User: What shape does this take?
Amino acid sequence: MTYFRATDPFPLESADHTKLHEFYTRLGEGRLVTTRCGACGATAWPPRGFCGECASDTFSWVDLAREGTIHAFTVQDTGLPAGFDGPRVFAIVKVDGHRVFALVTGADPATVQVGQRVRLAPVRVSDDPKGQPRWLTAFTPA
Ligand SMILES: [Zn+2]
Assistant: This one.
């Protein structure tokens, strides 16, 4: 089957496409991780292959908390990617001091609130062109 990149709304997450592929592998295991600089120790969000503080390109992976609080959110009613039913809640979730953009699933959009506790609940989306599973960062009410 021909692969139409222009109609695929999801990131290519495999080692062929990003050196940060371990983020997605661990997300698929139910873990939210990010990079910690090997030189100065700064923790980045989103994960980075180089440090925004000291420009080092050495890093290790560190786990973040699996729960956070909604810092801000919006509700999308139309124009959703294929396979998603609306309305859809997108939020910035504060996790260990980082602001993580994510879907919020399993929540009535009318009841979502700033400050609400949520827990990590990654969403599996369509496989990549080589059949590797892909995941999106998502949370659900705690
Ligand atoms: Zn650094």
Observations:
- The first helix runs from residue 21 to 28.
- The chain is about 5% helix and 35% strand.
- The first strand starts at residue 33 and ends at 37.
- Strands lie at 33-37, 59-63, 67-76, 88-95, 98-104, 117-120, 123-125, 134-136, 138-141.
